[in-house]
UniProtKB/TrEMBL annotation:
This is Pentapeptide repeat-containing protein. Gene3D superfamilies: E3 ubiquitin-protein ligase SopA. SUPFAM superfamilies: Pentapeptide repeat-like (SSF141571). It comes from Levilactobacillus angrenensis. InterPro entries: 5peptide_repeat (IPR001646), PA_immunity-related (IPR052949). Pfam families: Pentapeptide, Pentapeptide_4.
Length: 210
């Protein structure tokens, strides 16, 4: 998985609010810090080769949001609607995305590290080489989505819903959950630890292991 390609030595400090004033709604090679953006609506905003630190987005609606080669650090993106989002080589570090919608999104080479994605929606999305590391994914919704070469490492997946999403060739063995919503055929070829396998045996076969 490739890291975001950012010319950090030449980034220009910039306010996110200027994106609404730009004709093409583009912010490129800029550094944004410590702003709060609330209930803003934007059509097809683009962010490229930039960093966002300590930014707060609440209840924003960004249609066809595109982000490339960008790092979000200590950011809050809560209850936002990013339906149809496109993320390519993007990294989220210690970010909160609780209740945010990324339905119908396309994510490739994206990393979430130490993030809270509780109640986040990835329904009917395409996730390719997406890594979730030490993150909270409780009650996450990922229904009828396509996952390819994704990583789930030391995450809390309790009550996450992967209904009708194939987990084949994926590894959830280092993650934790008491309840996981999955479709029986969709867990074939997925790697689980012994405790998780016992839960699935009870769920689908009514078998209780001694």
């Amino acid at each position: 998985m490739n890291a975001p390609k950012i010319p950090t030595e030449t980034l220009i400090p910039q306010s996110f609010s200027t994106i609404a004033q730009a004709e093409d709604h583009l912010l490129a090679q800029v550094a944004m810090k410590q702003e709060t953006i609330t209930a803003q609506r934007l059509e097809h905003p683009l962010i490229d080769q930039s960093t966002l630190t300590g930014m707060v987005f609440r209840g924003d609606v960004f249609s066809r949001f595109e982000v490339t080669d960008t790092i979000f650090h200590n950011c809050t993106l809560v209850n936002c609607d990013f339906d149809g989002i496109s993320l390519f080589r993007v990294r989220f570090e210690n970010c909160k995305l609780v209740g945010t919608t990324l339905d119908h999104g396309t994510l490739k080479e994206v990393t979430f590290v130490d993030c809270d994605l509780s109640l986040t929606n990835f329904n009917e999305a395409k996730l390719t080489q997406v890594a979730f590391q030490r993150s909270k994914l409780t009650e996450l919704n990922c229904l009828e989505s396509t996952l390819k070469q994704c990583q789930f490492s030391d995450c809390n997946l309790d009550q996450a819903d992967f209904s009708a999403t194939s987990l084949k060739h994926h590894d959830l063995s280092t993650c934790r959950f008491d309840t996981l919503r999955v479709t029986d055929w969709a867990v074939r070829g997925c790697r689980f630890n012994d405790t998780q396998a016992a839960y699935l045996a009870r769920l689908f076969l009514g078998i209780t292991l001694a």
